[in-house]
Amino acid sequence: MWAVWRLVAHELSARWRSWAGLALLAGLAGGVVLAAAAGASRTDTAYPRFLQASKAADVLVSPQGTGFGGYYDAVGRLPDVRAVAPVAGLSVAPLAPDGTADLSSVVVAPADGRFGHLTEIPKLLAGRLPRPGRPEEIAADHIGAHELHLHVGSTLAMVAVTSQTLSRPARWRHLSERVVGIFVARGSVVPVTEVDKGPAFDASTALSRLLGLRYAAFDGAYVRLRSGTTVATFSRQAQALARQFPDTRGQVFVADEGTQAAAIERSIRPQAVALALFALVLAVTTVLVAGQVADRLLLAASSDNATLAALGMTRAQLTAAGLAEVAAAAAAAAVIAVAIAVAASPLMPIGPARLAEPGPGVRADVAILGLGAAMIVALLVARAARAAWQAGSAGSTAAAARAKTAGRPLGVVTWLAGAGVPVTAAIGARFALEPGRGRTAVPMRSALAGTALSVLTVVAAFTFGANLLHLVGTPLLYGQTWDVAVDFQFGSVTPQAAERVLRATPGVSGWSFGSYAIIGIDRSVVPGIGVAAGRGPLLAPVLLDGHPPRSSHEIVLGTSVLRRIGRRLGQSVTFTINSRHESARIVGRAVFPDFGRGGFTPTSLGNGAEVAASLLTPPGTGRPVPPSRAPYNFVLIRFTPGPRHAARIAAFRRSMTATCAQAGLPTCVRTDQRPNGVAGYARIDATPQVLAAVLAVLGLAVLGQLMVASGRRRRRDVAILKTLGLARRQVSSITAWQASTLAGLALLAGLPLGVAAGHWAWALFASGLGISTSVITPVPLLLLTVPAVIVAANAVAYWPGRTTARLKPSQVLRAE
Predict the structure, then answer these.
(1) Is there a smaller number of Cβ atoms within 10 Å at the N or the C end of the chain?
(2) What is the CA 552 to chain-centroid distance, rounded?
(3) What is the number of structural domains in the chain?
(4) Same domain, residue pair 623 and 604
(5) pTM given for the model
């Protein structure tokens, strides 16, 4: 072993610049890989860690009336409850520059010191929360700060209004609030509910007391449950308790905050997955590129191996020495990579997770960085093992025999030479397909694999992205079969009143009525709706399987709900709705667009339930009401297709402005009911393409490195060709044909595999969302990829080809 270590020390000192270059190359690329891998983990876990740091509530409970008559105190005494934090929603809104009140905002004041301290602790971006005894202080969430251009110290003009004074600005109560903090709340990271989508403000307890009950819009309580308690269990207890307090009107709404948290995590996860895939593909590309450099260094050192073998060193010793040299460079690369990853950690996480990150700044993920450093050493050594073994065999008879056979042309090259193709094309194809032998060997296979991998990744990203855009822009895919929804949230409309308006509206071809429901199934609370026919065919969420509920004993569920409760079509399920226990058969599987009101969990793709409208009773009646007489929360409307389709919808929206204002809503007409997940995917659609573009650049770098190495190692072949009469232009043409052949082979392998990978990734993604797994193929984009790759390959090969064409045969052959 002493001889091996002496040889390793000699080679490292003699060629230290080359080995340092390998360590730097692998370290830089490895650092990006480790930074992306650690960033993927940090992105994926940011929101759960935010919830843990904020002591997030499990449930939001809000009575139909009020809970301040002792109900919230009674909830806090339930054995399954750990903490309760009551809040009051105030009828206070920012005053817009045009003198109108911004009704899309929500102002919440804690009833005591529990909210924001025992539970639902916000992440402060700047400043602090309002002091309990200072009515002039207020804190804004980051959405409100962005929309209203607020910062700590800003003065915000606000007005307190009631339903009676909303249309009478002269009777508004004007307030001047000083912004003392900017925060991120659990719902503002990725807005899920209707309340979370607008600006939110935390006021002081003193402001709530100053305004009094006249300006109280709603109240509720955030509840943390004890370990092992399900939301469904608490919901039954809360409903039963409400009957003992008349101020609640016997009805409470329960929102499963865990469901909302899961929706936010689903919105964040694609970016984490994209980072992880980027790290994986970049790692493979790095191994290929760094492996080429390691092979070249081992090959350069093998010229002395025949002498060393004659002096008594065995093939195993020579191989071990070569691997030890690579391992030393890889260990240095691992140290560099870890340092780069730690230095780059403040750039992570990405996307909405950056808002949620409870501990921004430098972070060292010991598990990922430690494993990554070990993998850098292991992969580089494994990649160089074959070259080290071959270099260790120098001087043997077998090696000489292999060297003789290594120069035999491939069959396809022979065929090209005899097919009458230009000599430059034949030689270029031979340079692209034959790696050569000895010290003139070129790592063609690694370069081809790296280029094909880049093509595969880019095509897969484009295919996945095309399907994502198709989902975002196709309402049928996310469950919407109507053009407009008139949504009164907690208010209602009767069929007679709706029909008077709709029959007089031009272009309306049909409508259906619907109401909201909160349905307890198994151990969870599921947002639900009930739909009744009005005019024309029933307008309801898109069904993937089965049929709509036709009686009170039938139910349609989303894919995620079916998975959660372990049921399938045809089976029966027991659920709770409006304090009643019902049993129904699952008759369908549907995709749900966004149906949600206030701060309660909305439906979303695979999360939702549809029941017969006859099951939904108005709060407090306690008995079913026939659909023809029941008030409904929303109306789904379809307009006749045609050239005036968009204009008629716009006119209808304008005509409903006064009606929405009377209901206390900034707008009640919705044309876009994309679920929160789909809206979130629209925001992150560029992420896969950006990462794919980076990998495409790396693929071109691999190809460029190959062309440079090929030009250097085949100097003698080029010199001989020029001596035989080839002009400089023809030598450049050989390089172009070589690059084009490699690009063509990469396309031949990468295009179909990329399309297949994109289809597989989308089918897996769509199945997880609970939507149709049908896929589209972006044919025009793929056709454009072919010339783009060939042109890019020739652009990369231009300067190496030009340099090779300028070689002087006399100098090269004299050196040989």
Answers:
(1) N
(2) 39
(3) 4
(4) yes
(5) 0.79
